[in-house]
Design brief:
Blueprint (H helix, E strand, L loop, with lengths): L5 H22 L3 H20 L2 H14 L17 E4 L11 E4 L1 H11 L4
Antiparallel strand pairs: 1-2
Helix pairs in contact: 1-2
The structure holds zinc ion.
Zinc ion binds next to α4.
Length: 118
């Protein structure tokens, strides 16, 4: 995945500044409200990319059944808790076709091999 161009990065900074300005206008002198507004927006943007925790949990259950409880890479039995979804292409998101359920060790290796530049 290519990094943002300078032009696109400038657009992203502009959006971020607009959001910050609006947050400050709405929160005023209320640090608790500013904190909650930031949290809310941060989580929704995360869900836009990663889906909700419920969606990912259901996908994990599906993949676990499909892979018969084994890590897709090393075929060792997956732990009851701690198995991790790996996206083959990060931009494609957490879909059935774009994910594998891996043990933590295999997921760490896979992430090192496919980490996109920021
Ligand atoms: Zn593994």
């Amino acid at each position: 995945m290519p990094a943002l161009s300078d032009d696109d990065r400038a657009k992203a900074i502009q959006i971020l500044e607009q959001v910050r300005t609006q947050l400050n206008q709405i929160a005023g002198e209320d640090p608790d409200l500013r904190f909650q507004l930031r949290r809310y927006i941060l989580k929704r943007l995360e869900f836009d990319e990663r889906g909700t925790p419920t969606q990912r949990r259901k996908l994990k259950e599906l993949k676990r059944k499909f892979q018969r409880g084994l890590c897709f890479q090393c075929a060792t039995p997956l732990p009851v808790k701690g198995a991790e979804l790996h996206r083959l292409l990060a931009i494609e998101g957490y879909t059935e076709a774009n994910t594998q359920l891996l043990c933590r060790s295999c997921h760490e290796k896979a992430q090192q091999e496919t980490s996109p530049p920021l």
